[in-house]
Amino acid sequence: MKQLNYVLLALAWFWCTTAEAQQQERYTISGYVEDANTGEKLIAANVFEPEKGKGTTANVYGFFSLTLPKDSVYLAISYVGYETQYFRMYLDKDVTMNFALGVGAELNEVVVTADKYERVEQKTQMSQVSVPVTQIKKLPALLGEVDVLKSLQLLPGVQSGGEGTSGLYVRGGSPDQNLILLDGVPVYNVSHLFGFFSVFNADAVKNVTLTKGGFPARFGGRLSSVLEINMKEGNMKEFKGTGSIGLISSRLTLEGPIWKDRTSFIVSGRRTYIDLLAKPFIAAAAATQEGTDFTGGYYFYDVNAKINHKFSEKDRLYASVYAGDDRFYAKVNESDDYIGPEGTYNYDYGIETGLDWGNITSALRYNHLFSNKLFSNITATYSRYNLDTGVEVSERETFNGQNFSDASYAAKYLSGIEDLAAKIDFDYLPNPSNHIRFGVSATHHTFKPGALNFKIEEGSEFSLDTLIGSTNETSMDYTAYVEDEITIGQNFKANIGVHGSAFVVDGETYTSVQPRVGLRYLLPGDVALKASYATMTQYLHLLTNEGIGLPTDLWLPSTARVAPEQSWQAALGVAKTFNDKFEFSVEGYYKKMTNLISYKEGASFIDFGDWQDKIEQGEGESYGAEFFLQKKKGKTTGWLGYTLSWTDRQFENINGGRVYPFKYDRRHDISAVVIHQFGERISASATWVYGTGNAITLPVSQSDVYIPSNYNSDFQYPITVERPEEKNAYRMAAYHRFDVGVDFIKQKKRYKRKFTIGAYNAYNRKNPFFIYATDEYDFNPFTEEFESKRVFKQLSIFTIIPAFSWGFEF
Amino acid sequence: MKYIPFIFLIFIIACEQVVDIDIPEHEPQLVLSSFYKAGDTKITAYLTKSIPILSSDDPDDIWGATINFYENDLLLGQFEESVDTAFTYQFTGEFDDEGYPLYEEVISNILHIYLLELSAPLESGKVYKITAEAPDYEPVSAVQQVPILPNVSNPEYSPESRPNLDGYLMDALTIQLQDPPDSDDYYEFNVFLRYDQGGGWGSTWTESITPGVERGGNGTFLLNDNLFDGGTYNVELLVPPRDTAEVDFRIEINSISRDKYLFFKSLEAYYLAQDNPFAEPVIVHTNVENGQGIFSMENKIEVIIE
């Protein structure tokens, strides 16, 4: 509570210091900033009065409000990639104005004074990166599948897990410590195809923003990052479509007005077709086995849909839904006939196995403008993640057509999480010096921590249907926050807030007050000095193995035995824009995490009994420095990032209680991204990444230990045990990779077509995926015996992989 | 089932290569194996050495070592060197009249072991220490306390009463443990059966779904008292259905030292990790200072259900 008092006092003080600005006669300009061609709202567009040095930023719904003294005002409205629009008026009353910006000519470098407001040194927020979706779609991609999350892995402070996977490890945190919001709704499993692709279809995405530290008070619930992904709203002006056909999937997006300038929709879907392509080959292979019928395959699909309706300038409704599923399946049927002197014996056997997992998220949001200074949004959301894996076996025996044995056995493993939530958020902009956000939310979680369902039918003699394993658990999660973006003079800005939360589970109530502070001071030479401090509490835990985003990972609540995870993070940095083209920032950070969870050694998801018995709680820390140089404008864009970091973990019963490096402790991490536009028809992109090898545990010695037999304890026999000395004491070889891609674009009569070719891992680097010790046998011609030799073997996946896709847009 | 599709995918697109890993040189250590129980008067110790992981040598027995046994730092005796012979069956190259291959027993290995005959049996609650020294190796030592005898009651047998994890109905053997308060206690269970009164006891497949009961690395079941410290706890062991008129069961219930519990628990995890290419290697527990291996104590009772 002491921390809360300090924050409230600070807010009051800042409010008083800025209140004098309200003494003059002032009026407010408010409205929305949108794309002139599509009507899409432009998130974080800048509305700036350069002569008075005042400005504001549009919120996530494109709404802005700027209060200025009664006078002639000159407004510049800008957004990266769009032509800046200027507007002069005499402000003597409150006015509502909407601005529609046209897409800028990307080949021309436009430098305008208003753009100063969107420079990195102007923002209080640090440790935050927005990557334009247009840029993401130009980056080379594994198998041509544009992936939002993988593009974020190219940013400093963000690391990938295993080769080709889409997990995000932000500043030493694990993937479950990322709050991933799709239109404000948490997405629990972001992986398709065991982590190799993320669930976000770039064609349906409007905006991607990653916050790694200095978290504003409106966010909470995770320790390491907030990833906001906003879906497009749909074109309000005309019907449009985009699509592509790639190596493993095809996609189609349709959008348009239902009622021009009032109601729009967007529907986007994609599906892989490895299973369809493989079907004839599987059938051909099965045909060679008489009496055997085999089908099997794997696919994923996802669908995004959104509809929004503008009731009036003050009221707007959005409904959005995401649904995606992965399915692996295999089915074998065998039939054998034996014809004997007394008749025909027939035996039918079938086995069917499957692994299905998928998310549904949906949100209903209602914007209401109470006044030109007070914006509100009410949201109701539903999301669920389910895993269902199982096997079914059936057997039937007949003799001369008469059943004499008929049995079926089925086992299913089920797990998941389901959320129902409601929240209300407000943006209050009383004057140019304060942007206050506040809100409350309540979420009902239902956890399904894994259960096994057995079904046995043995004719009419025996029947069993039983459920073994953990029962569902429910909890309530309440949050409230207030934050103020404060401007004092030309040089000082602050974002001060507090996030409070309460988590009620099984009679236990956890509460947390989390102060958040972000400061910016503009030094001479337009160099911004920034600092931030944030504490975070995470009530949900992901029980997972390190590395692979398996769908069997379990989301679980804090309980009386398992305390919430907590962290605090402090960061200090400088930022500056050079020549209006290059943004440069350097940040140092320190993050301390407590109550982290991990599987006990040897435990796994399929163990039965209480999941709380399978885990350890411990702590971790991460610190380092990040360098980021980005060019957002011109024919050539891209960035260069470098991270120097240390991350470790400590659990009482792992590694003998000693501190050990986190698997993804990566001392050096470099990423270089270049996108170049050659005229209007060709653009090329290239990325190069380098990272210190992952930490691994390798055995260094082997020995024979004699243990008593469980049949006869007087008899002892030797077992060979390989021993590592320390956990994660060794490093895999460094990871590096070069990807390249070229887009060929041509405007046809009715549509624009895009042909993309590229290569992942273009110089065919054999990066280590994992390493294991094994025996190799060589034949010795002199002794005529096989001699064994102990070796380490490295498995590499994704050596050079070409990609191409054909796309269209109308 | 968990990894099948993933492994399938990886092996379609993966390639493997032998790599050189810069592993620091391992200085061989003494490896001591010594499992004793309350009441023992003749005890055996095995002493081997550890070798570097990439070595093709055998981790030979250590001969000529000095191994001492103490009770509360009071020397009880020095182990004497001895040999133990291990046998194996080898195909003779001939077949019997029915065409089955004929085997003969041959010596597979001669083990160097260390024996000590104590003047008094090992006693519950007492603390014992073992030390070993051998030329060219750092001396090793380990300390153990003999646990108190487990308190077990209400043994029961319920035929076909519980489905196992595969859904098959199993016979259940139930015992009730009375755990001592204010101490960390560890248990081990093992089930045997015999078909006729007076016949020999044999092993039987055993499972358990009792919370906290887990399989140990030598096929027995382990349990700690975290869930029921100082209270009573029903342990259910599942065996395949039998004709109860013909079968007797014997349940061994051991109070084991924490080190034995951790050793066999980690050994089981070690075996599981060996089958799982994605699992982190497990460090098998040792309580041998400056060396490897295990020195453990236990106190056993048996329950016979006829």
Task: Set down the secondary structure blueprint.
The complex is a heterodimer of chains A (810) and B (306).
Chain A: H1 2-19, E1 26-35, E2 46-49, E3 54-57, E4 63-69, E5 71-78, E6 85-91, E7 95-96, E8 99-101, E9 128-130, H2 133-138, H3 148-152, E10 158-159, E11 169-170, E12 178-182, E13 185-186, E14 191-192, E15 197-198, E16 205-211, E17 225-231, E18 240-246, E19 249-259, E20 263-272, H4 274-287, E21 292-310, E22 315-340, E23 343-371, E24 374-399, E25 402-431, E26 434-458, E27 462-469, E28 473-488, E29 492-505, E30 508-523, E31 527-538, E32 540-543, E33 554-557, E34 565-578, E35 582-599, E36 615-631, E37 636-651, E38 660-661, E39 668-678, E40 682-691, E41 695-696, E42 701-708, E43 716-723, E44 730-731, E45 735-747, E46 752-760, E47 770-780, E48 785-796, E49 801-809
Chain B: H1 4-13, E1 15-19, E2 30-37, E3 42-49, E4 51-52, E5 66-71, E6 74-78, E7 80-95, E8 101-117, E9 127-133, E10 140-145, E11 151-163, E12 169-178, E13 186-194, E14 202-203, E15 214-215, E16 221-224, E17 232-239, E18 248-256, H2 258-274, E19 292-305
Description:
The complex is a heterodimer of chains A (810) and B (306). Chain A is globular. Chain A starts with a helix and ends with a strand. Chain A is mainly β and 810 residues long. Residues 16-22 and 106-114 of chain A have low confidence and may be disordered. Chain A has 2 domains: 25-118, Carboxypeptidase-like, regulatory domain (Immunoglobulin-like); 129-694 and 732-809, Maltoporin, Chain A, CATH 2.40.170. Chain A has 4 helices and 49 strands. By secondary structure, chain B is mainly β. Chain B folds into 2 domains: 25-145, Immunoglobulin-like (Sandwich); 151-305, Sandwich (Immunoglobulin-like), CATH 2.60.40. Chain B is 9% helix and 49% strand. Chain B has helices at residues 4-13, 258-274, and strands spanning 15-19, 30-37, 42-49, 51-52, 66-71, 74-78, 80-95, 101-117, 127-133, 140-145, 151-163, 169-178, 186-194, 202-203, 214-215, 221-224, 232-239, 248-256, 292-305. In chain B, strands 2, 3, 7, 8, 13, 14, 15, 16, 18 and 19 form a 10-stranded mixed β-sheet that branches. In chain B, strands 6-5-9-10 form a 4-stranded antiparallel β-sheet, with no helix packed on it. In chain B, a hairpin with a 5-residue loop joins strand 7 (80-95) and strand 8 (101-117). At the A-B interface, strand 25, strand 26, strand 27, strand 42 and strand 43 of A face helix 1, strand 1, strand 2, strand 3 and strand 4 of B. Strand 42 of chain A pairs antiparallel with strand 4 of chain B, so a sheet runs across the interface.
